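Is this the right way to post structure tokens for a design question? Let me know if I should format differently. Anyway, here goes:
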């Protein structure tokens, strides 16, 4: 018999599973680093971070729910099929084996393991750790039907308990107040900087990628009717985002308070290590190692599963098992680039994909109000693509930006409103949306 509605307990586990897939490496290191950098401006920085780190992923989940698609390809093909294939493959490569997934092992090692290894053995131990880590990820990812059991019922609850101990201890025994001077662009633009920093979590992209896992999980629980799948997908998204928002705020606050005892650090991993050792001594180092490894492990399982399922649907001649091996094998190699190197490599690509993902999500949300969507999607994406390509240049090293051709393009980009704040794509995309909606409206009336 068809099961139209989930039990509250099952829905809770699906929401926790989705949270577990979202909350990985960047979700720990970026908000706490942002809090330390923002200092007295931490409130505005957190607000900006929540808009991209929580608001956009929630909108992504909602977009998949209301359009009743099974993920990013279903949304992107509203533009056209070639774009859908290109965007889907690029997105999964970025949040999968090329950038986001390798970062999981690197963060686990840098924050949790490095201090236990002698300087001369760092390279070798990182390589061995990466192989063990991604072998474990692959093992948990072999059977997509069991992802809720592994991630929703075991890994994520354990992670939440341990992380809660660290955050609550730091909040109840603060190292200082929130009045320390802000650093860098947080001095003058804390909201904008926090907004852009939220890109680093890659969760708006992941919200499109994880849709297929949530929907397949719901179907496995007996929910078959599209309307109920959509409703439960949205409910699971709300549960996961509430958890993320609370933890982000807590991490940012203890990051700002850490300035009472520590100088500004190079990255969030250093701050976490300092806090864990301060509050728990030697035991804190092991506690942090377990927290970080669990966070990254469960997200790795989600990413490998989503990559394998989506690539198998796009290219069915290759089995899920083969795609899963690729998704877990390549990161074991790329993880050895190092944390700072992976972050530097990711920014130009994120500067391109994030605007396109936002345009896609918001256009999908508006689709319920429009008579047709073909040209609305196409024109909005076309107008937003060129400024998004300019964003790629701004993410390149400064030495490359001085090349004559790139310098000219950057000069043209400065003509766009909001370009300096990183949002030069917004008004062109809005204009394209308006033009496309007008064309769709005219065509709908002509066909009436």
């Amino acid at each position: 018999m068809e099961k139209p509605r989930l039990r509250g307990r099952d829905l809770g586990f699906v929401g926790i599973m989705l949270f577990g897939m979202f909350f990985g490496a960047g979700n720990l290191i970026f908000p706490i680093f942002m809090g330390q950098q923002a200092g007295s401006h931490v409130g505005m920085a957190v607000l900006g971070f929540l808009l991209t780190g929580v608001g956009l992923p929630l909108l992504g989940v909602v977009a998949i729910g209301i359009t009743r698609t099974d993920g990013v390809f279903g949304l992107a093909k509203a533009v056209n099929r070639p774009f859908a294939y290109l965007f889907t493959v690029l997105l999964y490569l970025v949040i999968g084996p090329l950038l986001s997934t390798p970062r999981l092992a690197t963060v686990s090692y840098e924050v949790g393991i490095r201090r236990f290894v002698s300087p001369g053995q760092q390279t070798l131990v990182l390589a061995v750790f990466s192989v063990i880590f991604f072998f474990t990820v692959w093992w948990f990812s072999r059977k997509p039907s069991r992802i809720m059991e592994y991630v929703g019922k075991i890994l994520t609850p354990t992670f939440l308990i341990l992380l809660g101990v660290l955050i609550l201890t730091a909040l109840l025994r603060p190292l200082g107040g929130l009045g320390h001077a802000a650093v860098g662009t947080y001095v003058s633009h804390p909201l904008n900087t926090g907004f852009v920093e939220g890109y680093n979590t890659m969760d708006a992209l992941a919200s499109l990628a994880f849709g297929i896992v949530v929907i397949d999980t719901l179907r496995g629980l007996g929910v078959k009717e599209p309307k109920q799948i959509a409703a439960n997908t949205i409910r699971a998204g709300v549960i996961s985002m509430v958890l993320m928002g609370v933890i982000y705020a807590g991490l940012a606050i203890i990051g700002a308070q850490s300035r009472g005892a520590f100088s500004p650090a190079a990255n969030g991993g250093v701050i976490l290590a300092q806090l864990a050792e301060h509050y728990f001594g030697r035991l804190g180092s092991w506690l942090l190692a377990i927290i970080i490894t669990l966070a990254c492990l469960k997200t790795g399982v989600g990413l490998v599963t989503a990559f394998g399922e989506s690539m198998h649907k796009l290219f069915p001649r290759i089995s899920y098992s083969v795609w899963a091996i690729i998704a877990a094998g390549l990161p074991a190699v790329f993880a050895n680039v190092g944390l700072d190197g992976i972050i530097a490599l990711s920014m130009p690509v994120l500067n391109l994909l994030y605007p396109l993902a936002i345009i896609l999500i918001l256009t999908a949300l508006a689709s319920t109000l429009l008579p047709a969507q073909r040209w609305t999607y196409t024109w909005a994406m076309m107008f937003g693509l060129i400024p998004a390509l300019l964003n790629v240049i701004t993410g390149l090293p400064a030495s490359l930006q001085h090349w004559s051709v790139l310098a000219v393009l950057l000069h043209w980009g400065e003509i766009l409103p909001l370009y300096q704040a990183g949002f030069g794509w917004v008004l062109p995309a809005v204009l394209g949306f308006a033009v496309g909606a007008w064309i769709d409206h005219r065509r709908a009336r002509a066909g009436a």
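Format looks fine. Someone answered above. Worth noting: The CA atoms of residues 4 and 119 lie 57 Å apart. The longest helix spans residues 282-314.
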